[in-house]
Amino acid sequence: MPAWVYESSFFSITRTYEELSIVCQESNIPANVPANIRAERDWSCLKVEGLLDFGLTGILAGISRVLAENKVSIFAVSTYDTDYILVKERDLELSVRVLKDKGYEFKSP
């Protein structure tokens, strides 16, 4: 695992038999990424706040439905306690606006 991954305050590593996916802060990704590594840039992260007990259903589905209805693609990352929704930077303002219109609240941006 590249050392720069662990320098990020937020990172997620997922490994399957087919691939290894690393999500981290863009500022930690070196400019000269090797050719065999695909790096996609320009994402913003929305953190879903609150107690997300495994018994709760539909939270991520509700958010992703609102964004899909507005043609916003997402990349979701979850930990035991928290969901993170990544949207392209160009879609951040729209994402926040349409989610607020549906009653979702934001601490930031």
TrEMBL record:
Residues 2-31 form the A9CJY8-like N-terminal domain. This is Uncharacterized protein. Transmembrane segments: none annotated. It comes from the Archaea. Residues 39-101 form the CASTOR ACT domain. Pfam families: A9CJY8-like_N, ACT_7. InterPro entries: A9CJY8-like_N (IPR049447), ACT-like_dom_sf (IPR045865), CASTOR_ACT_dom (IPR027795), CASTOR_mTORC1 (IPR051719), UCP008459 (IPR016540).
